[in-house]
Every structure is written in C-alpha cells, then in structure tokens.
Amino acid sequence: MELIQSATSWLTEVWRDWSTLIRILLIFVLAIIARSLLLVSVRRVVAGIVSGAKSKAETSGAIARARVVQRAKTMGSVLSNIITWTVFTLAVTMILSELGVAVGALIAGAGIIGAAIGFGAQNLVRDFLSGLFIVLEDQYGVGDKVDLGEASGVVENVGLRVTKLRDSKGTVWFVRNGEILRVGNLSAKSTNTAKKSSGK
C-alpha cells in the first residue's frame, strides 16, 4: 500500500514539475505518428493507381500508362507536402500554446508576412498551380508534340513549375507553366484515331 502511495505521489510530483515538457513531447510524438500514417496512406493510394496502370498497359498503351502514373505521383507529392506542412503547423502552434506564447497574435503576424510573401512570389505560385492543372487535366504529356505559343516541339518532361520540350532543330525549351496561355496538342488527334481503330 505504501509503495502504491509512494509511486502515486512521485508521479504527481513529476507531472507537476514536468507537465509542460511531457505535453510538448506528447504533441511532438503524436505529430510524427499522424504524419507517418497519413503519408503511408497516400503512398498506398499512389501505388495502387500505378499498379492498376501497369496492369492495363497492354490495352491502354505505354503513353496513357505514363500519364496516369505521372498524375498519380504528382497528386501524391502535392498531398504529401500539404500533410507535412499542416501537421507541422498544428504541432508548432500547440507547442507554442503550451509554452504560454500568444498564438493569436503570432498567427495574425504570420498571416501578414504570408500575404507579403505570397504577393512577392505570385508568379511562382501561378506556375505551380498551372502545372498542377496541366497534369490533372491531361492537357499534354511526355512524348506529345505540342505548340505552346512561343515554343513548340516534343514534350520531354512535365513538371509542376516548368515544361521541358525539344523543337525540330534540337533546341531544348523550358517554358514556365504560368506563362502558357494556350496549348495545341498535335498528338491528341493521332492518339484518338489510334483508339478508334483499335476499338474497331
């Protein structure tokens, strides 16, 4: 009985002296666990889409499979970044609250700084958003012959910020996705024709 009372009093004393540090450690550990579980879920979804695309490669073709894989990996990368930053922000906010920092004023100040940074980097944000929609809407993919206005040629890489293509003279062009106002996909017609002929 005395042992239980002694242990209880010791735990109470430890909690009283180290409660803030213990809560901070718990927040940190739970944030790591939550982030890991969410990232594993995203990776499983992406892996499922990729394996599904591989199994359908014979019927849909290598180009269609490559586009599905590219879209899945792009979405996986975007979701992973969103999860990481969201969990990190929530954990830091909770830790600062445990330390007695006025989180409300800090969030207001961070909002003003974020708005200033966003205004200064609006071209970069526009490039990323445009690249995301290019991939999701499947406007063009690797191997397509496209006309992007200022540059035209065969697409070698589609990134979230820039599109890399090579023209008929061998020149490699890096086109910022935010500057692409129109897309002429010269390969789309041949792809649709091939699909119709295979369907017959």
UniProtKB/TrEMBL annotation:
Signal peptide: none
Main location: membrane
Pfam families recorded: MS_channel_1st, MS_channel_2nd
GO cellular component: plasma membrane
Positions of the Mechanosensitive ion channel MscS domain: 123-187
Family as reported in the entry's similarity comment: Belongs to the MscS (TC 1.A.23) family.
Protein's name according to its UniProt entry: Unannotated protein
Organism, scientific name: freshwater metagenome
Lineage: unclassified sequences, metagenomes, ecological metagenomes
